Structures are given as C-alpha cells and as structure tokens.
C-alpha cells in the first residue's frame, strides 16, 4: 500500500511537470509566432508615406483633377492605416484565444492521462485506503472519511475480516460463518459465509469499493485488500 501511495504522488508530480513544461512551450511558440507575424506585417503608415512621396515628386501637379486624385490617394492611405490597425488587434485577440485553448487542451489531456493511470493502479492493486474505522456501537464504518451505515450482520462480517487482516489471515466462507456463529468451521457451510460477504458488499453499495475492498482469493477465501495498519475498531 505505501508503494501505491508513492506511485500516486510521483504520478501527480510528473503530471505537474509535464503540464508546466507543455504550457511554457505553447506560450513560447505562440509568442515567437506573434513576434514574427507582427514584424512581417506592413507598416500602417506605409501607404501614407508613398502618397507623401507622390506629393513631393509631383509638385507640378496643379490642375483640379490632379489635386483631387492626390487627395483621394491620401484618404485611401488613411483608410488603409486604420484597417491595418484593426487587423493587428484582431490577430492579437486570436493569438490570445488560441493560447488559452491550447493550454486548456494540454491541461485536460494530462488530467485524462493521469486519471486513466490512477484507475489502472486501482484496478491492479485495489482501492487505496488511508483509514478504516469500524464502530460497532454506531453500526458505522468510516472508509477514508466516507461514512457507511451497515446492518448488524454486515458489521460483524466486516469486523471478522478486519481482525483476520490484522493477523494476516485469509478466511474461507465456512470460517467466517464459524467465527460469527460461534461454531466450528467444519460444522458450517461455505455458502453461508459467501452469503455474508455478498450482503456486506451490498451494504457498502458502491460496486467498485465493495469489490476492491473485499478480495476473493481463489481456493483460499476472503480478505480485506488494505494495509492492516490503517484499521481501527471501536
């Protein structure tokens, strides 16, 4: 069980590093792309400068039509400058939006990978239990601070399994029935103990918790798949 905890911590640390480096790489790439893009965009005053050169180079244009043409060119330069400025703003907004989307995508991807890895660890090693408190008087079980109200029979079954786990024992169905009923295991039916295990799992409710918490070892019996040091009984 300590190995499972260590693996989970290492997985979280690895995931945090991957997310950090991934986000930093995305921001750096988009920042470099934004600089290259803005540097290669034409100057907003480029058109106006060309029109100004036309005015200077053709100061002999004096007719009304020629002056009107130069005026139209100057107005076109101003319109081009305003349009290019708006394009720069739109490009900036799109870059910020794409950065946010990529960061979110990387974060969710890493979260999914870590979640799948964690679920795989749970499937292979069983549920990670940090504390198991059994209160017979209150007919309550606290599993990782989650409260479960159980019947008298379910509490007795879980208590027997917990005591066996603290002694590193695996109990068969007949032995479980014998301990609870006070009879010799040879006089008890294996199916009676299996029925008690089934009722305990039904009382716990959550299928994943019940199936992974109470392990069925083939041809041996039943045991709690948790660290015996986390078990407390009151």
Describe it for me?
This protein has 234 residues and is α+β, with helices and mostly antiparallel strands. The protein folds into two domains: 2-125; 132-233, Winged helix-like DNA-binding domain superfamily/Winged helix DNA-binding domain (Arc Repressor Mutant, subunit A, Orthogonal Bundle), CATH 1.10.10. It is built from seven helices and six strands; from the N terminus they run H-H-H-E-E-E-H-H-H-H-E-E-E. The protein has a four-stranded mixed sheet with strand order 3-2-1-6, with helices on one face. The longest helix has 62 residues, at 64-125. It is rod-shaped, with a radius of gyration of 37 Å. It starts with a helix and ends with a strand.
What brief labels describe this structure?
single chain, 2 domains, alpha+beta, four-stranded mixed beta sheet, Arc Repressor Mutant, subunit A, about 10% strand
The mean pLDDT is 75
**Which structural class matches the secondary elements?**
alpha+beta
Strand order of the largest sheet: 3-2-1-6
The largest sheet is:
4 strands, mixed
Q: State the distance separating the first and last CA atoms.
A: 23 Å
What portion of residues belong to β-strands? 5-15%
Provide the helix percentage.
55-70%
Overall, the morphology is rod-shaped
Total count of strands: 6
Give a summary of the structure in a few sentences.
With 234 residues, the chain is α+β, with helices and mostly antiparallel strands. It is 68% helix and 10% strand.
């Amino acid at each position: 069980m300590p190995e499972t905890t260590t693996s989970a911590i290492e997985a979280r640390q690895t995931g945090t590093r991957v997310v950090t480096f991934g986000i930093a790489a995305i921001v750096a790439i988009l920042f470099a792309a934004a600089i290259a893009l803005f540097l290669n965009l034409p100057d907003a005053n480029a058109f106006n400068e060309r029109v100004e050169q036309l005015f200077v180079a053709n100061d002999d244009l004096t007719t009304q039509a020629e002056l009107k043409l130069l005026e139209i060119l100057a107005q076109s330069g101003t319109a081009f400058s305003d349009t290019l400025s708006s394009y720069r703003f739109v490009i900036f907004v799109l870059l910020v939006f794409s950065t946010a989307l990529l960061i979110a995508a990387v974060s969710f991807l890493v979260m999914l990978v870590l979640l799948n890895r964690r679920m795989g660890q749970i499937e292979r090693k069983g549920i990670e239990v940090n504390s198991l408190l059994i209160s017979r008087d209150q007919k309550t079980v606290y599993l990782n601070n989650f409260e479960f109200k159980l019947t008298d029979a379910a509490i007795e079954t879980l208590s027997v399994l917990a005591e066996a786990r603290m002694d590193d024992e695996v109990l068969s169905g007949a032995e479980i029935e014998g301990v609870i009923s006070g009879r010799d295991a040879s006089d008890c039916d294996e199916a009676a103990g299996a029925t008690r295990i089934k009722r305990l799992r039904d009382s716990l409710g959550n299928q994943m918790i019940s199936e992974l918490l109470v392990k069925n070892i083939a041809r041996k019996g039943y045991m709690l798949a948790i660290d015996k040091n986390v078990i407390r009984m009151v």
